[in-house]
Amino acid sequence: MSSDSGLPDRQKAKTFFQYGNDATLKSNLDYAIDMFKQACKLAPDNLSYRQALRGAQRRKFNNDPSKVGRLVGARNQPIRMRARSARSKGKYAHVLEICEDAFTHNPWDVAAAREASEAAEQLGFLLLAEWYVESVQAQAKDADFFRHAAHVHERNEHWHKAIASWEQVKLLTVAVDRLKRWYRRGLLCIGDAAHAMSPVGGVGINLAVQDAVAAANILAAPLYAGMVGEADLARVQERRAFPTRMIQGGQVFIQKRVISGVLGNKTELTPPLPVRLMQAFPILRRIPARIIGLGVRPEHIQTPERAAPLS
After folding, report:
1. What is each CA distance from 161 to 108, 109, 147, 149, 164, in whole angstroms?
2. Of 47, 63, 64, which is closest to residue 55 (Cα–Cα)?
3. Of the residues 131, 155, 172, which one is the last residue of a structural domain?
4. Within a 10 A sphere around the Cβ of 69, how many other Cβ atoms?
5. Does residue 188 contact residue 206 with C-beta atoms inside 8 Å?
6. What is the pLDDT of residues 210-251, one digit of tens each?
């Protein structure tokens, strides 16, 4: 191939691509992958070269993602870190080259595809950026990935694809977090506005109602007096922050220790210790029922009734 040294990059890339096709026909996949990588390096925006490369990489695993092995994530992590470092320095073409090393180990690597897609977008290769996300879409399970996919589809004005990606975001987004500060002058956030809850236990509505009752109890007198200050609003957060932290902590514990284990387990399941204890001692079942039904800090209406003003 030394005779190719004087040819323009595009012509060299075409030659490497042909070498790759010939090797693929002979099932010499390692050589084909190397040739396709050379072609992509010389013509990074060429989608056909990239598709041929990914096809050869996947053929090595019989087009079966389950055959990449469980340790491939740890193997690819340093490669993805190199890609992020290159992206932070604005070396976007180099990011594409680095990501191909990750795809050699796992041609369905979602994180590497996201990195490569962002780099391609920065280079102005919008169709290539879109292809990267579409090539691993079946494996993606992260809402943030589909946000990026929707953005790329919008850049390409492929609106139906963008809408489909946003639908995935809506289905996958489950947040458990809370505001650091629930109030500003003239504003108080309670319920979901102050703390996003997991569906675990179905306690979000309970917490929101209790927030409202606590707010009414604390703010009724200042509101009647027409003198609500930030200190009054802060009292609401102080009252409700502790039960919010406790309930959210319980939800995260159940999600990680129970639900994730059940969904990821392919063998016979053994009930966790708390469940076994409640089976053995039925009286213990009152504890989760009370927490779910009444909350960590139950609230009761304490505002006095006031006569309606005369019209």
Report:
1. 20, 21, 12, 9, 5
2. 63
3. 172
4. 11
5. no
6. 999 999 999 999 999 999 999 999 999 999 999 999 888 888
Q: Which two tokens stand for residue 129?
A: 């950026």
Q: How far apart are CA 91 and CA 95, in angstroms?
A: 6
Structure tokens at 209: 């109602």
Verify that 38 and 92 share a domain, yes or no: no
| 10/40 same-domain check | yes
Same-domain status, 164 and 83: yes
Same domain for 263 and 183? yes
Distance CA 199, CA 279 (A): 24
The whole-model pTM stands at: 0.57
Cα distances (angstroms) measured from residue 201 to each of 95, 213, 307: 43, 21, 39
Does any domain span residue 302? no
CA torsion 101-35-149-199 (nearest 10°) is -40
**Angle between helical axes of 143-155 and 126-135 (0-180°, round to 10):** 150
Percent of the chain exceeding pLDDT 90 equals: 61
| Residue 17: domain span | 2-59
Closest CA relative to residue 250, chosen from 276, 279, 277, 274: 274
User: Structurally, how many domains does the chain consist of?
Assistant: 3
pLDDT digits (tens, 9 = 90+) for 30-45: 999 999 999 999 999 9
| Same domain flag for 226 and 165 | no
Six token digits for residue 81: 């870190």
